[in-house]
Design a protein that fits this description.
three-stranded antiparallel sheet, single chain, alpha+beta, flat, Arc Repressor Mutant, subunit A, 5 helices, 2 domains
């Protein structure tokens, strides 16, 4: 499912892996591993960016688009069956719970010094 979401994202526009990691709020290493797998299966390509040759632009391939055409109906069916099994009241409760948990996480991240899209640095502690 995560790789499918990544392909959907890349179908909109080619992106740098750092932008992908920021969008999905994932560690760069996690995104790199997903891109590696997609590239090994010819679903995406990486190409250098003219302005900065250290940066690679990740782009979906024709094979990746074909996979999306096949996989999206299955994905939509899974989502429909999963959430379709809930009553309207259960969906509303789930929505409230998710909103609540999102606020709690935001507060905890703020207290810990996290900012969206940035990884905090660990400060060395001197116990002497």
């Amino acid at each position: 499912m995560a790789r499918l979401k990544l392909l959907v994202y890349l179908a909109e526009q080619p992106s740098r892996s750092t932008d992908i990691a920021s969008f999905f709020d994932q560690a760069p290493r996690t995104v790199t591993q997903a891109i590696d797998w997609l590239e090994q299966n010819d679903l995406v390509t990486r190409s250098p960016v003219e302005e900065d040759r250290r940066v690679k632009l990740v782009e979906i391939t024709d094979a990746g688009r074909a996979m999306l055409e096949q996989a999206l109906p299955l994905y939509d069916g899974i989502v429909a069956k999963t959430f379709g099994s809930l009553t309207a009241e259960e969906l509303e409760a789930l929505d409230r719970a998710i909103l609540h948990l999102d606020k709690v996480v935001d507060q905890l991240e703020t207290q810990a010094g996290f900012r969206r899209g940035r990884v905090p640095t660990l400060k060395a502690h001197n116990d002497g």
